[in-house]
Amino acid sequence: MKNLEKVNYKGFIWPLVVGIVLWLIIPWRPRGLSLQAWEMFAIFVATIVGCITKPLPIGGTTLLGMVVTVLVGLAPVKDVVNSKGVVIQTGILSSFGNSAAWLIAMAFIMAHGISKTGLGNRVAYLMIKKFGKRSIGIGYAVTGLELIMGALIPSNSARTGGVTWPVVESISKSYKSNPHDPSRKKIGAYLDFTAFHANILSTALFITGAAPNLVAQQMAAQKGYQMSWISWFWAGLVPVIVATLIIPIVIYKMYPPEITKTPNAKNWADGKLKEMGPMSEPEKIVAIVFSLAILLWVLSGFFKIPQLNSAFVAFLAVTLLLITGVLSMEDALHETGAWNILIWLSILILMAGKLISYGFIDWFAKFIQSEVHGISWGLVLVVLVLLMFYTHYFFASGTAHMTALYLPFLTVATAMGAPLGLSAMLLAFTGVINASTTHYANGPASILATTGYVKQKEWWKMNFILGILYMLIFSIVGSLWMKIIGVW
């Protein structure tokens, strides 16, 4: 007899406690807030807490939140239309047509082609071969690898776990630098920590770099600000370049490897490339398809061609990989991360939309606005950025954090007179760099902080310093750059 699947029943405790408490105080809800708005808020907060405590994987947790939303009458199953055929209430089924969720789902399937063909590893070895004469050179090579992979692989965890970490581990062990051992500081600890921050930079450069970016895109659109692939890339380009130049050096000075010269790295990479042999036909096809997808994403941002919608481009790329035989339909169906994110991202965006339609977000913005009346929008925006960053100590999911706070903070900022474009992008970038807080901040942190190369105390101490550096770079350099290019 097959055993039951494991369920973390203890993880239900806090979501239930939070949800029930919020529900019980409905009669004493703040003045000016409708019954439906508070009920939706209670379910939304309980769902976000569930995404943190994880009684079920995030897909199952959000499905439970969606079911409760329907059961209490806050959302119908299908769209409700009036006599003129106009949708007056969005149903839950419509949420699964969300373009951002489909974009990242298709991008996950595209990324499968990178790993299946070995193209990702080839790029990694070429980078090490080029820059691997010194430890700091390998650090920059790992950073460059992440920036390249950021355009190709839409999951920050997939980039780290599938490409970057295996390369870092192989290089470290080739120098007898082992985890859970004093030898970890030979080079492994430095490369491990550098790889994590390289992932932050790659996520900041591309809107498809991680799921929270797409959450910000959808929520900014609800306030009337459109983020395209090219507009995000253009806004993040200069602060990411500055951070890319500075961060590896700061880590090198703050956390120096014992081995500073690495003459064997080039030979190691050469050996790996010889094992792989010449570039295969599937690799060439994947490279062409990904290049085409990026080109079309760029063109869609410049020329606003309806047919080149970002999600459609991802569908087109997957179709080309299927037609050419690089991927099979079985590959697509077995890419569980794609279908998982399609479920939970669609549901979280639906729930956030309900908070807007029931008036909770407007009420919250007016409440905060009244509390900070008379304060300049610049100071308000600084406070919101600091809150967006440091509240991440209480979150184990970038997506949950972005979903919970991005839209309310954006609403407050614009209500106080802050430029929409600057507020939208600065808060979105903060939702990326706040991963430089804890060892549980996001997927890559969970992977690289548990390898045995970097101790938890070291992780928190160094990240606290680097977090301040990130905020200075993105807030000052980023804001000036966005002013120059006309974002605000």
UniProtKB/TrEMBL annotation:
UniProt superkingdom: Bacteria
Gene Ontology, cellular component aspect: membrane
Keyword set includes Membrane: yes
Compartment list: Membrane
Primary localisation category: membrane
Transmembrane segments: 12-29, 35-53, 60-77, 92-114, 135-153, 187-211, 232-252, 285-303, 310-329, 341-365, 377-395, 407-429, 464-482
Keywords, in A-Z order: Membrane, Transmembrane, Transmembrane helix
Membrane-topology annotation of the record: Multi-pass membrane protein
Alphabetized Pfam families for the sequence: Na_sulph_symp
UniProt keyword Kinase present: no
GO molecular function (one): transmembrane transporter activity
Cross-referenced InterPro entries: CitT-rel, SLC13A/DASS
Family of this protein: Belongs to the SLC13A/DASS transporter (TC 2.A.47) family. DIT1 subfamily.
Stated name of the protein: DASS family divalent anion:sodium (Na+) symporter
Organism for this UniProt entry: Lactobacillus helveticus CIRM-BIA 951
